[in-house]
Amino acid sequence: MADQLSVEDLAKAKQSLVSYVQQQSFQDEVTSLQKGLPIKRSSRIYKLDPILQNGILGVGGRLSKLEMPEETKHPAILPKDNHLSKILLYHTHAYRGSLWKKSNDCKTQNKILDH
Q1: Which own/partner contact pairs does 59-64 have at CB distance under 8 Å and 24+ positions apart?
Q2: Percent composition of the chain: helix, strand, coil (DSSP 3-state, to 5)
């Protein structure tokens, strides 16, 4: 069925939403980084050493040298009081929580020891 959303479609939608929220909340920072300028020390995200990758404002730092997914090395910066931030946080906790539960269920069912 051609009417179904693909994983790629969902990822693009998430990226668009994150970019929109960042433009609303961190417009000065995004503009500075797009122009190749440093962000102001007075910015509330200055200490995160922000970088701009593919239009998304992410946490900078030394992790860039490691071999791991970019979204793990440079997670997107979102304001805590935004509805999208709350939705993404809830989703992450629900997903990770279900993985933890499955892991514990597996340990219980298979008598896997923690030590």
Answers
A1: none
A2: 55, 5, 35
What's the CA gap between 109 and 35, in Å, rounded? 56
Distance, CA of 55 to CA of 34 (rounded, Å) = 9
* C-alpha R_g of the chain: 18
Q: Could you list the pLDDT tens digit for every one of the 115 residues in the chain?
A: 568 989 999 989 999 999 999 999 999 999 999 999 999 999 999 999 999 998 999 988 877 777 877 777 888 899 888 898 888 888 877 777 665 555 444 333 333 333 3
Q: How far apart (Å, rounded) are the C-alpha atoms in residues 61 and 39?
A: 15
Return the axis-axis angle of helices 83-110 and 7-25, rounded to nearest 10°.
130
Task: Report the 10 Å Cβ neighbour count for 31.
Answer: 13
Cα angle for residues 15, 20, 21 (degrees, 5° grid) = 100
